[in-house]
Specification:
Largest sheet: 6 strands, antiparallel
Number of strands: 10
Oligomer: single chain
Strand order of the largest sheet: 6-5-10-9-8-7
Number of helices: 22
Strand content: 5-15%
Amino acid sequence: MYGLLHKALCTWVLSLPGGEELQEQAIQLAKIDGKADDFFRFYADSSTDLLLQAICRVTQRPMEECKFEAGLFFLVGVSESGYMHMLKALGDTFFELVENLDSLHESFLPSFPKMKIPSMRPVKINATTMEIHYFSESPGLGPFMMGALQATGKELFDLDIDIRHKEKKDKGAHHDIFQLFVDEAAFPTEDVSKIEKEACTIAMDHTITNDLLPWHFAFDRNLNLVSVGKLLTDRLNCEGKPFEMNLEKVFKIVRPVSTLLHFDELIQLVEDVAFTFLIQKKYLVQRSSADLLVKLDSHMASSSSSIGEKSDLGALSASSLGSFMGGDDLARNSRLEKLASNLKLHGQLNYFAEKDWLVFCGTPSIRSLEELQAQGVCLRQMPLHSHAREMLFGSMFLSASAANSVQVDQKLADLDNSMKEVEDKRKQIDGLLHSILPPIVAESLAKGNIPPAEHYSNVTVLFADIYNFTGISGDIPASELMDLLHELFVKFDDL
């Protein structure tokens, strides 16, 4: 994982009495090369486990307590890394912030490509109680997330949160469930006024629906498709008969994780929950980018389609689409998300009460030029109102910036190593000079200066010669000769 947990752990340890010494001991025990608290560095799971075990040992605290305490300090790394403003933008209330965390995590993928994205789903139980369903590929992180949630509530919303670990993934549960007791201010205010609802009077016909929502689809309680946008129709391998396709057979839900394709379950998530649907390759028409451009021109020339005319989706009021206008499951979803030959659609569901349908409104989920080409999509197919084009370029910019940052960090690390080597060499030379010369002479030479002349009132100069030194040096081993010279000069020094 990336260094969020490492940074939080080290920050907590430093806050303890004797923290610097404790942190140094832990890093030595964990045998981590380089910085142990680099927020942007990717650490192997084994390194994280070793650091956790080492911190438990030096602090003499149980593992769950260490994780929870680290969670209370996680905002330090977020703030120092410049992401606090993004966290604050997630919502005006604590509940809204948690609702939008998944979207924030997905936006990090271009910068943190190895990130194992967790998922959170908040559920309001009553006016002062909520549950948060936490899905993560890494079991055992529940206590850390509990601390992080408690710290976020206090720092950003001045909430005193009492949090309990209701179900634990590392104890056999499907995922972690946290129960939170909070103030009523943790939840957003309910509903829109009657006047605001009645102010929306437009009812869109098929032509406008197809132009604004070319990737939409709608389905009934039997999960049968009842309306399909023109661009999605063009991509489905349905031989012109999309209404004979069943949602459960063709689509998979990537996010929210662990969500089943059951109408009654989906209808509970229609408000403020982002969905990512994946259509498998075998149900898609495969074509090149050149083919797409030709096909797209024909779509733009005629905004209505036979599919749109057949369905009643055009009768949807603008109010029902207004919100759009504005564990193991995770591992499976991560694999699905990387299959660029599939088509991924990101958006939200709306309930069309008049027909008892669920309507998905969204656009292809694309973060890079490679995905754009591999999924057979071009920019002109992204509705202007969706900001999907801007999101794509933003993701590409973040990815390029992250790559450049990694290169700069590597060059700085190489420079640090080179400077260390130079410093080591300098110390060796200084040591040699001090071993054979008086300190004042050695220091002057080390600084590149000429040693100053010194005056002595009484001086004795000894001239000595070793008789037959050449012959002696040829008759005895070099080591004995060096011992002889050493002993001789020591006696001279004693005179």
